[in-house]
Amino acid sequence: MNSPAKTPFYKDKKKLLILVFLLSFPSVLYVFLSVGKTNFIHLQYYGEKELAANGKDTIYHKIAPFSFVNQDGKTITDKDYEGKIYVADYFFTTCKTICPKMTTELIRVQNKFAYTKGLIQILSHTVDPENDSVPVLKAYSEMVHANTANWNFVTGDKKELYAMARNSYLLNATEGDGGPDDFVHSELFILVDKEKRIRGIYDGTDIKSVTNLMEDIKVLMAEYMIHVKRDKIVSGKPETK
Q1: How many CB atoms lie within 10 A of CB 143?
Q2: Are 213 and 87 in contact (CB under 8 A)?
Q3: How many CB atoms lie within 10 A of CB 48?
């Protein structure tokens, strides 16, 4: 009676190596992303930067503190965006050219990140505060079906709105004082991170550009997730679920 044929040793070894690779790959990938040299996409910073007093750290351009009034008559400040990622733009309610396209694209952003439960926000500033009163902004937000829990339409002092556009959001290279003859009209969307730094600038009238914005938002979210995991590993604290 013939004994059953034995599987050659090299074939068993090959299967074993494949099995070990499949089982260990997720762990290796996790450690690489968490504590190793990360090669994933990292969004750039916009605006001027300078070296900190310690000679090591870099200080990046940041959005200045602000205080405006939203569509519900509530005062909205930079404090409301602490720990949030947000997209900023400038518009006016009677605009018939680029603004409708921009609003349509912002609705895409709103719907795409509804699952984040408020982590991703939208902040739309009027460039026409004389006409875009609180009731007008309220009516506009309802007309475009904005979720105002995550999307504010703000008005305020024209000089302050325009100074923010030029000096903080870097929307307009031309000089102006926010006076009666000054007018800022930009198609740009600005991506701002949790530390109030500009991480992306996009054409709000272009579908492809806004799609890139949404991809970059996901990259930015991943940056923060990886930093949290790395900090927990370095500190030795177990990850909470």
Answers
A1: 10
A2: yes
A3: 9
Residues 6+ away with beta carbon under 8 Å from 78: 63, 64, 65, 66, 196
Q: Which domains does the chain have, with CATH numbers?
A: 49-230 (3.40.30.10)
d(CA 115, CA 117): 5
Q: How far is CA 81 from CA 15, 65, 152, 231, in A?
A: 53, 11, 11, 23
Residue-wise pLDDT tens digits, 157-204: 999 999 999 999 999 756 676 777 667 889 999 999 999 999 999 999
8 A C-beta contact, residue 83 and residue 76: no
* Alpha carbons 43 and 37: distance in angstroms, whole number: 16
- Nearest alpha-carbon partner for 111 in 72, 144, 79: 144
pTM, entire model? 0.78
Supply the Cα-derived Rg of the chain in whole angstroms: 25
